[in-house]
Amino acid sequence: MTRAKASTGGTRGFIVPIGGDDRRIRKAAILRRFAQLCGGSRAHIGIVSTVSEMPDAAYRYERAFRDLRIDRISLLRFGSRADCESERNLAVLDAVDGIFLLGADTSHFSDTLGNTSAAQKIHSRNAQGIHVAATSTGAAFLPEQMIAAGQSGTTPRADIVELAPGLGLIGELIIDQHYRHQDRLGRLLMALTYNPRAIGIGLDEDTAAFIGPDHRLQVVGSGGITIVDPSQLQHSAIHPDRRHAPVSMIGLHLDILVEGDLYDLAAHRATINR
Amino acid sequence: MTRAKASTGGTRGFIVPIGGDDRRIRKAAILRRFAQLCGGSRAHIGIVSTVSEMPDAAYRYERAFRDLRIDRISLLRFGSRADCESERNLAVLDAVDGIFLLGADTSHFSDTLGNTSAAQKIHSRNAQGIHVAATSTGAAFLPEQMIAAGQSGTTPRADIVELAPGLGLIGELIIDQHYRHQDRLGRLLMALTYNPRAIGIGLDEDTAAFIGPDHRLQVVGSGGITIVDPSQLQHSAIHPDRRHAPVSMIGLHLDILVEGDLYDLAAHRATINR
Prior knowledge:
The first copy, chain A, has 9 helices and 16 strands. By secondary structure, the first copy, chain A, is an alpha/beta fold. The first copy, chain A, has a single domain, classed as 3-Layer(aba) Sandwich (Rossmann fold). Mean pLDDT of chain A is 89; it is low at 1-9. Chains A and B meet through helix 8, helix 9 and strand 14 of A and helix 8 and strand 14 of B.
């Protein structure tokens, strides 16, 4: 899948990975900011689930958007690949101003949504200017590569992470989520060892990265975002026969950003917003 | 307390912080390397505890050193400040070739050992060439500043860490331990915000940093060592009234080192040992 590009005369919409925790997020500024981007009370928001039974989280987010005076909300259930080819569902994706993808077991994303007409539609609509937010594992699914599984721990090891293809809305980014509470630096570092041209983003819960069409990211929410830039990585050594052994990584650049701070993904440069 | 310096004509001994886990460490190369530094089977090793009852760990390490054919081992109990002034105990510190400090509740170190004749003796003997190893919280106590308490989490917050004075064998270093399994990056980063001239060292369990008199560190053990260099830190913002809020930190340098790798603490430069 190729990366979303602005179509002729248009501008790509925002891509908004969110670190999860749907109970706290209702109080936060993240949904408000997303709703505003999509057109405020005139917006039509599509809430997308990739599991066969619509999860409680879908109704919680629907309620939260209703509280923000969003009247037009469509709940879209992509529980099977047939759902992802349904003309009716694709017509809804064509009608919405913003797409909000819920978290699920990571295998659902590649098994159910990957390489379907729905995935292509989300892709092309984002390229045309429609905004796409995604929370929890949905956030990890947005770039070309996703962290599909992994273990906790600060130190990278070859067997600490498993990667899978993502939706491909944005390239050269690895996103991890539920970050603060689950000790995920090691698996993010290891994912970067496999993708040294990518930038790693660790999203705390109740924290979002609003990534604009200019590839500038702004932090919104109560937590922090950890940015790991491996572009200066000088050495890393993986022993194929010792996959549980820790791995050397020298020359990583690390930034911790909080609400309002900016990061330019093209220039690899952070700016504190005072 | 001033930093240990080589006395005239002498060379400071090694300083060996170890990340903890005394059950696994018996199988590891760490104690063997330390025993060799101290003179091998001719060495006289002093195992130091700062709690009033000699802990089981003392006997486990004694047994491990015995297995390495170390015949002369003294168990030193510094359970009170009086113990730390005892002529008999100080005479033992004068006799040993290596000191091995056990972990304890962090408050024991400052309350019991801090600023006593025993602390001064360990300091002066290290400056004269005697090697000092310390495991778990003992490792954190070796530099001028120690992490006395803290919470888990990857993201730094002002209230995530409490600092206390350390033994002062080495300056401008912050050591954290039991690192891999306890999600301690946030508190290490926050400790560096308070000590921006220090280098942060996160020691996995069963992993040691052998810091030579030339300020070069070598990794020994089965885990990794996380090195955080804040010397290029461009911005950090702490709100005194929002101590639980995450803190921005931009421009951190991060290295992950494994067994055999080197780090020059003076030059801030890592080298992979292939």
